[in-house]
Each structure stands twice: as C-alpha cells, then as structure tokens.
Amino acid sequence: MAINNTITEDHPSDDSVQVFSDADDSRSPTMTDFSHTSADSDVFKSTQTFKPTESPALRDRLHELYSDNITAKILRTAVTNNGKYECREADFWTCGFFPGSIYAVLERLIKYPKSASIGIDSSIVIQKLRELGKTWSDPIHPMGARTDTHDMSFIIQPSMRPLWELFHDKRALTTIITAAESLYTRYNDKVGAIRSWDQLTQKGVNITSMDQDFLVIIDSMCNLDLLYYAAAHTGRVELFNAATRHAHKLLRTHLRHETGEFSKRKGYNGPLFSTFHVTNFNPMTGKLKEARTGQGYAKDSTWARGQAWGILGYSQTYQWTGDTEFLIAACGLAEYFLLRLELSPSCVERPVTVASDLETQGRTCGRFVPLWDFDAPVDEANPLRDSSAGVIAANGMLVLAQTLISRGEHTQGRRYLDAALLLVEDALEFSLADEKASIVIRGQEVLVKDVRPRATFEAILKNATANHNASDHRRYWDHGLVYGDYYLIEFGNQLLRMGLV
User: Fold this and answer.
1) Sequence-distant (≥ 6) Cβ neighbours of residue 349 within 8 angstroms
2) DSSP character string of 412-424
3) Cα-atom radius of gyration of the chain, to the nearest Å?
4) Helices (DSSP H) in 357-446: which residue ranges?
5) Residue 428 CB neighbours (<10 A)
6) What distance in Å separates the CA atoms of residue 448 and residue 244, rounded to the nearest whole number?
7) SS3 track for 93-161
8) I need a labelling partner for 497 at 20 to 30 A (CA). Which of 23, 263, 336, 383 fits?
9) How far is it, in rounded angstroms, from Cα 104 to Cα 122?
10) Predicted confidence band at 156 (pLDDT cuts at 50, 70, 90)?
11) What single DSSP character describes residue 360?
12) DSSP-based three-state secondary structure for 171
C-alpha cells in the first residue's frame, strides 16, 4: 500500500557552452562562469552580521516538532487510511516517504529518547513502529530494480538508509546499491545527465519519444544523493561521476542567473538563481531543445517546490564533492527563495491569534509559507501555498548551514540556520493541522485518538500543493502532502543530530 502525495555535462571544458536562452524572455539567463569563483570568494563573506536573537530555546519555539501529535499521526496512518490521505498505486514516486516517516520517528525514539513527548514507556511504541515499519518497507525492496523512473532516492532512501544505519540491515544496503545501479542505467553520456521523465503529456504538450527527447527536471538533484551514497559504500566511481556530471549540466540549463529586480538580497554578495522546472535535450547530440514547466505556473516562472529541490540537491551535492560551484549554486538558490518570500504581497500574512496569549498580539504568520509558484497570480483572499516547498527548502538550508560553518564561514552559516528555523517555525504556526492526535496505551496495545473528538486530518501540515499547472490532466492543491510531513520530521531529526535541541 502506498500513500499518495496528496490528501483529498560533464563540467564543460568548452567555454562556448551556452545556458538556455529565449530572446523574447527578459528573464532569460546569461552564462554564469562558476569555475572562476574560488573558495575564498567574497560570495561567502556576508556584509551583514547575524547574531543569535533573544528568543526562547529552540525546543520551546519548535515544540510542535517533537509533540506526540506527530508520532500519533504516523501510527494511525500506518494502521488505517480512514482519514484524509488518499492511496495511490504502490509504485507511485511518493511511495517511499511514508515508510520513511515511520523510521524517522523511530530514530527519534531510539537515538534521542528525551525528544519524545509521548509521556509513556516509549519501548511499547518503538516495538509497534518497528512492526509497522517492516510492513511498509518490505514492498520497497523490489523497487530497487526499477529502471523506469529517476525517483529512486525518493523511493528507496527514506526507509532503507535508516534500516541500514539504525538496525544494520544488510538487505537494506543491498537494496540501496541496487537502486543506484538502476538509476545509473538512465544516464546518457552524450547529454551528461540522467533522464528524469520518459514523457510529458499535458494540454498542448506531447513529449513522448525516447529517441528524440530527453527530459530532465530540477527535482532530479535530490536523487543524486543515492548515487553518491552507493558509490561511497562500493567504490563505484562511475556512480559518483555520473551524479557530478548531472549536477554540472543542470547548473547551465536549469539555473537562471538573475540580473534584474531579484538579483540582490541584503547581506549576500553572490549571484542569485531562479530555476526552470523541466528541460528537454536531444539525446543523440546532447543539445538543449527547450525549457518549460510541468507543475509550475509557466515555463519561465519559478515553481516554489522546484526551487526548494534545487536548494536541497545542490547543498547535498556540495557535501559529497566539495566542488565550490555547487555551493555557490545552493546559496544563490536559497537567497532567491528567501528574497521572494520577503517580497510576497502582504496578503500572505495573517494575525496570530492564540487565546489569552499577550505575546501574540500584533504578530502575524504565513509570510514564510511559500506561494506555490513565485510568479503565479495571487488570489489575495486566499493565496495558494505550498507548505512542502518551505520545509524542503529548510532542510536544504540546514545542510548549507552545517557546510558553511564547517568551512569557518560562521556568519553565513548562521544566516541559513536562522532562515531554516524561521521557515519551519512559520510552517508550524501557519500550516500545522488543528486536528491533532494523541497516543493512548492500553496494556500492550497502542491506540490513537483525536484530541478533539471527530476532528481528524491525517497529515501533519496543511496548505500544500502537489500540482496546480493549468495544463495538467491531474491537479491537486491546498491539501496535505506525505513528503511535506516527511521533510518536517526529518528537519526535527537533523536538529537533534546537530545537538541544537
């Protein structure tokens, strides 16, 4: 059983390589020469000092991130689907996230028992989650042999990595390596990239030829982690090289170097980048044919979740390679994301209303819960969001923070740590479902109940949008998303790993 995503080039040696350009598009990029930016560049020298603010402890600010509501909802969904989640086909690309959430909660309870807020003997819950984790992860193992999709990291890693790292399950590691080898079959040396989609069919769009077309999406950056991980465990250099060539290729085809109104953000001296969602190459020549969107508003708009995938993917890729080009890209993507949040219209905010809480008077929330596409028209009465984009971007910025601090760039690292925390704090305040759940133990039985009777919403976060492209045949908006919840839980775990909470 799978939980649906909804509820209701080689680094070019030839300097003539061109970034995609459309003469009629004023926002088209010019070529960015990443290769001449050194590790000592002023890109990483922030001109603004970010100091820790006088505020409550992180654990207090993010208390909902560690509440039993999260464990309760994961438990309930693992047992029954009578709430708002919709099931999709078992091989849908999101199928790995829910078992991943089970293991993310397990990691908390096993490695960081003090983080649990369930107020009971956690061993009972751990045993139940291990049983459910096996039920949900066992069907993932055969997925490792799939060569019909690029989403192998999304499908495999959320459950298989913790199975290997927490429980030393050798079968899980074998599945990870098999999946990486399967993903590698989609690599095209002429293009210097991994094929993402086999086809793209929408109203007026019919890209289906495997001989003439080669579709690559920005989301693919987050599947490279699988190749690097498997390469590190096997010594398979070709996996590492394919991932790195893919990342270099997308620098020049999916990233738009902003030169206009969105080209500068206070406190940062480097370039800012927006993203194309989809590009199509000629698989025989490697030449770029066109750029467009699949899930965003328009071909040259910036789809918020695509931008978030880029932040996380390039942050992870820098960690594996140490290539400064990828660090520059990750920072520029993050700065653009934050700038667009800051410049969103005032209608994205709403007053914080908590009964008898004087500290909330005059405060607002929602500015840092992203609009679904930064360039789409905004309904001022009900701005359409994508909360998943915010928490995915936050995970990427947390990786950036660790990376920069390890380089001695403490001010810039703190900049992204603060930004990541702000994104998640705002998501919890604005998008956390009011319909909460709690755990009840009866003997050795683990039960889940609604905090408010008959007020049930399976997802942890609301306000997500899977796909609102007007030309697509299947559109979903303003709902919960299984991967939004997964990345929210993972963010909390990463703070625990960093010793910050």
Assistant:
1) 364, 365, 366, 367
2) HHHHHHHHHHHHH
3) 22
4) 387-406, 410-431
5) 22
6) 45
7) CCCCHHHHHHHHHHHHHHHCHHHCCCCCCHHHHHHHHHHHHHHHHHHHHHHHHCCCCCCHHHHHHHHHH
8) 336
9) 15
10) very high
11) G
12) helix
State which amino acid sits at residue 457.
F
Element (H, E) at 172: helix 170-184
- Which residues neighbour 276 within 8 Å (Cβ) at sequence distance 6 or greater? 20, 218, 253, 254, 256, 291, 292, 293, 299, 300
Give the contacts of 25 (CB within 8 A, at least 6 positions apart).
300
Between 248 and 47, residue with greater pLDDT: 248
User: What is the token pair recorded at 247?
Assistant: 């990342």
Structure tokens at 280: 């199509």
* Confidence grade of residue 52 (pLDDT, cut at 50, 70, 90): very low
DSSP string, 318-358: HHHH--HHHHHHHHHHHHHHHHHHHTS-GGG-EE---TT-G
Under 8 Å between Cβ of 420 and 491: yes
Which residues neighbour 240 within 8 Å (Cβ) at sequence distance 6 or greater? Answer: 227, 228, 231, 320
**Burial, 50: exposed, middle or buried (Cβ in 10 Å; 0-12, 13-18, 19+)?**
middle
Where do the structural domains in the chain lie, given as residue ranges?
2-8+38-497
Q: How far apart (Å, rounded) are the C-alpha atoms in residues 151 and 141? A: 14
Euclidean distance between the first and final Cα of the chain, in Å? 34
CA pair distance 303, 294, nearest whole angstrom: 9
Percent of the chain scoring above 70 in pLDDT:
85
* Tokens at 131, concatenated: 């049983």
pLDDT digits (tens, 9 = 90+) for 188-223: 999 999 999 999 999 999 999 999 999 999 999 999
Residue 369, classed as helix, strand or coil, is coil
Residue pair 303/373 in contact by the 8 Å Cβ criterion: yes
Q: Is 406 helix (H, G, I), strand (E, B) or coil?
A: helix
Four-way CATH pick for 2-8+38-497: 3.40.50.10210, 1.50.10.10, 2.70.210.12, 3.30.420.10: 1.50.10.10
